[in-house]
Task: structure prediction
Amino acid sequence: MSKSHNALIDEVISTAQNNTADNLSALEERIVEILASTPEGTNPRPQIVQAYEQYAELSAQELNTVTDLSANTVAEQTAAGIGAGTSPEDEDAERIMLEDSKGTVRQSILQHAEIVAGVVAVAAVTGEAPTLTNQRVRGAISGVMMRTSNRDTSKLQTQLRRLRSNPNADTVEIRGLTQKIRANLPNVETRGALLDTVNNTVEKVTMNFNNTFTKSRAEREGVTKYIYDGTTDGRSRPWCAQLAGSELTKEEIEELWEEDWSGKEEGDPFVVAGGYNCRHYFEALE
Result:
């Protein structure tokens, strides 16, 4: 597809991730409020679960913009002589995949509620200081991007946020900055944070939506040849970068996917493409 579609993919992912990060930051604050208002000896688990349900739903709605990708796919395929506008089958595919994408993001957040509820329960039994419990809850939700009153840490977080938004950023620099922030957050576990999980989930479901819709419409229109397209930058696997721009038949693609490479993911090659966190896809050719 065109560069505009590649840019649209990056925009949809970035917007959804940024908005979801805002939702999780609000969730972080809400959990701390719940802990502060819970009487001693009372289990706040029901309120914690309710808060997760609220923000899981808000975050799921951030996936609505993935339909911009299906609309653009229809427009570009139609312009290339593939089909004639949006069909009822296209609308059904879009609706089903949108709900599936939302459900995946929603579930990735809801299942984390038990982790935080467990942190709070253990803290109550051991008599942990409320300040430390709050920090550990923040770390479990937002990781190294957790809310902090330390100015030096906040500056490092701003630098890290900018680096992460740059697709050509040095991964070594990102890793080093992340370690500096962790060093400023003693006694707080930030690895495996909900924010990181959801960011990965948003990227994965967005690409799955794009790739599945592109394939399903192309097959309905009798397409037999594709070109490997997508964003190729410093994050791309060498295998993907080398394949980018190649024109292949469906049979050639299926044969090629019998090979092995670093990061390969099992499944339909038209959907999983290069594997974990891959931003490539097969564009249908006339």
User: Anything to note?
Assistant: The longest helix spans residues 3-37. The two ends are 12 Å apart (CA to CA). Residues 106 and 140 are 17 Å apart (CA to CA). The mean pLDDT is 93.
